[in-house]
Design a protein that fits this description.
2 copies of one chain form a homodimer. Chain A is of the alpha/beta class and about 450 residues long. Chain A has helices at about 15-25, 35-55, 70-85, 100-110, 130-135, 155-165, 235-275, 300-310, 330-335, 350-375, 400-410, 430-440; strands at about 65, 90-95, 115-120, 140-145, 170-175, 190-195, 205-210, 275-280, 290-295, 340-345, 390-395, 420-425, 445-450, 455-460. Helix content of chain A is about 40%, strand content about 15%. Chain A has a 7-stranded mixed beta sheet with strand order 1-7-6-5-4-2-3, with helices on both faces. A 4-stranded mixed beta sheet of chain A has the order 11-12-14-13, with helices on one face. In chain A, strands 8-9-10 form a 3-stranded antiparallel beta sheet. In chain A, α7 crosses α10, α8 (about 300-310) crosses α10 (about 350-375) and α11 packs parallel to α12 (about 430-440). Chain A is globular. The two termini of chain A are about 45 Å apart.
Chain lengths: ~450, ~450
């Protein structure tokens, strides 16, 4: 039963399991205590800190363990903003950060701070120049992920770190997706990561704060973890997390080559096997194990459900698979198709035959979902030379991918040069109608508010 | 090797270990995902929530899991304060709460809020009337522990909850020390607890918020745990925590009787076996497994070190065993002797023979530390009828227990009715000199600032 969602959570690495079990007997006591059980716990904690710091590329006394990666991000952002309060209250983030960063930014805004969200290109990558331009005299902190969690695109961390250094702004790197593959290059100031992403147990985050970085932990603190992460340390899990990180790093060189080839195979084949697919993210500067694509005329929830029935576990940034009914903020920032979105992220050790089977299964699954939704087959139908020049489709109240399916059908009712207007109130239409036009070679004329919902206008060009 | 510090952290319960190991294979995936690994994780999480909620005495949808007990306290206090911001910014706590509560209170004060710390009596207990008087029209939240973590005294939670209900103020109960023994009685609004205190793994806290309580989570949130505790859930640890709580509850009735008798034995014998000992905390309304006493003329660190050499692991609220060089805030609030302080908290299953051996070992350990420090033997020496009426001891720069030892020696140099003044700058003297007077039947005249440090005056009465 192939699990292809390592980017959400990796299965526990066998080394993590061993380390966890071995340290349950030694690591349960309070490491702040002077008695033997406390000293033993302290030794385990110190050794884990050394190992994790080496993998991160920092000094052990720069590294704190937190209760989760999300917590590390929150503590890191708030501690830095607070430590540089005198400089100003401006925060720079990329538009495609993990929600833990964007939620912190939103919270900072509602506390009266200001935030600049640096745009990304269609591959999901920020431009170092655009990022540098966002830095201001009152910028307290800049945040950039090492690699995007939804599309795998690597960010230019070293260049952005250099721009931040030149501007005297600390850079916080969310390394959650990449730390398994190697340390983050460049002169970062603060780094956050999450153990369950690399095969460690849940419940362990890393927060590294370089010496000399102004940092003032916010809220109530205690004496644990250099005063940066209050609460009793979860030592067996910390030991397991550090052991797993060492173990995956030992496999990283060989596995990155192997998984990169498997992902390359998916990237190449998916467009050949399934019509109307857009593979998104940077084709080269990317995580080795992750590929994301979107399928026209498919709703993400049905697709995931069918793939799950076929025993493939993947995730999706489509609106209809989330409770918010909006497409993933990453796909929106990239301006790419969001419907029928599938993220495949291969765990270490993924078998080639499972990837091949996925490619065998996928076309039938997509076709069955499309058939059920009444999607148009193949390219847009022949233009109707006798049709009206203007035709309006009312998709109000219909959810993704219906507005796009109705657009695809309606385009056949106008002659070349004619215009179809789609009325829709589903948020995904804003992304998916322009994306459809690009994929289909039709001209997107833009949107304007309608009496109800939004009117999207498309001119038939062929 | 008897471990007598369950109140810091209990050894992992065998049931917790089993449950942890069993759920490592099923509980690592993201419970928010729709695929089978996610659904399995969700089932485990839901079942653990049901079990824990039953043990707490709340509805499953009122209960969130957090990354630690400290985190549960912080989230609970900030969420309640924020939810009742319109009512006011006044917070009531007892003076003997856990540091996680007091740190939150201090942080609230530095944010501009106001805090009332309700005093306790010499047993460490708040008076329900005094607590009720502290409630005001602008009180947003009241906090009270179910039982004190250092001396074991049970707090009148049900009475205080009733007073809070009458005043329309929500009551947050820190149940960390008592939840193993049973649910918290009374109409509490919010409850926090910590799994490693009851034999669950570290990394799991409980936060229960009753329906209808105004609660607005502070800072960045996400969709996990009803929006109350951001970050990926640590499901294997949560499963183990819930299983351990059920298991200890099943043993609670029998073990509380058995451990209560062992503690009773320590309470009765320690004063007979060791001269100049004060047993502190409520002798009856107390946790079954915990007893605290203080030994005159002994420094806590040496005492703990010697007990550790004798293979007993205990903790201490003495100043010299902490990094802050101040005695525990609990002992200070109670106004009891802090020097040579020892907390014994027995884990489930503690053998009677280990307690007996502790009582055998303790007198020699205390005597050896006293001999090394040159403590006076037995009662105060004979009064010197020819001595000066006033005698001053300069203990500036000397740490606990030296000022008290020097006082005890100097008292022999004055006649009955004469006065000894001790000059000291160690914070513990403020607590320990009056406590010595009470234990020795000498008259404490009070303190006043001296050119350096503080002058403590004692009149010889016998």
């Amino acid at each position: 039963m192939p699990y292809f969602d390592a980017a959400s959570s990796a299965p526990l690495h066998p080394v993590a399991r061993q380390a966890l079990q071995a340290s349950l007997d030694e690591g349960w006591a309070d490491p702040a205590r002077l008695y033997r059980e406390g000293r033993r716990a302290r030794l385990l904690l110190d050794a884990a800190r050394e190992a994790a710091a080496e993998a991160v590329g920092c000094r052990p006394d720069e590294l704190s363990f937190t209760g989760s990666g999300t917590r590390a991000v929150h503590l890191g952002i708030y501690g830095s903003l607070s430590g540089r309060r005198r400089v100003g209250r401006h925060l720079v983030v990329s538009a495609v950060e993990h929600s833990s960063v964007l939620h912190s930014a939103a919270s900072h805004e509602s506390d009266g701070g200001s935030v600049t969200r640096v745009a990304v290109d269609r591959t999901g990558r920020v431009s170092p120049d655009a990022y540098a331009e966002a830095l201001r005299g009152d910028t307290a902190l800049a945040c950039l992920q090492s690699a995007n969690h939804e599309v795998g695109t690597l960010q230019p961390v070293a260049e952005v770190a250099e721009a931040c250094r030149a501007a005297g702004v600390p850079l916080l790197v969310d390394a959650a997706q990449s730390l398994a593959w190697g340390p983050v290059e460049g002169a970062w100031s603060i780094l956050a990561a999450s153990a369950h992403k690399w095969g460690g147990p849940a419940g362990v985050g890393l927060l590294a704060v370089r010496k000399g970085v102004r940092f003032a932990p916010q809220g109530p603190v205690d004496e644990r973890e250099s005063g940066r992460a209050p609460g009793f340390e979860n030592i067996p899990a910390i030991v397991a997390a550090a052991a797993a990180l060492r173990a995956v790093r030992a496999e990283a060189a060989a596995e990155s080559v192997r998984l990169r080839a498997l992902v390359e195979r998916i990237r190449a084949r998916v467009g050949e096997l399934v019509p109307d697919v857009e593979v998104v993210g940077d084709p080269v500067r990317r995580l080795p194990h992750l590929v994301t694509f979107s399928c026209l005329y498919v709703d993400g929830e049905s697709l995931l459900h069918e793939l799950d029935r076929a025993e493939f576990s993947v995730s999706s940034g489509s609106s209809c698979t989330s409770s918010t009914l909006t497409p993933s903020h990453v796909l929106r920032a990239m301006g790419v198709l969001s419907e029928g979105n599938v993220r495949v992220s291969l765990p270490l050790g993924t078998a080639e035959r499972d990837v091949e089977r996925f490619l065998e299964v996928l076309p039938g699954v997509v076709a069955s979902v499309r058939a059920r939704l009444g999607a148009p087959a193949g390219a847009s139908g022949a233009a109707d030379p006798a049709g009206a020049e203007e035709f309006t489709v009312d998709s109000l109240g219909r959810l993704c991918p219906i507005p796009v399916i109705e657009l695809a059908k309606a385009i056949g009712r106008v002659p070349v040069g004619g215009v179809v207007t789609v009325l829709a109130d589903d948020e995904a239409a804003r992304l998916d109608i322009p994306a459809w036009c690009e994929m289909r070679g039709q001209e997107y004329l833009g949107e304007h508010p309608a009496e109800r919902g939004v009117a999207y206008r498309v001119r038939r060009t062929g």
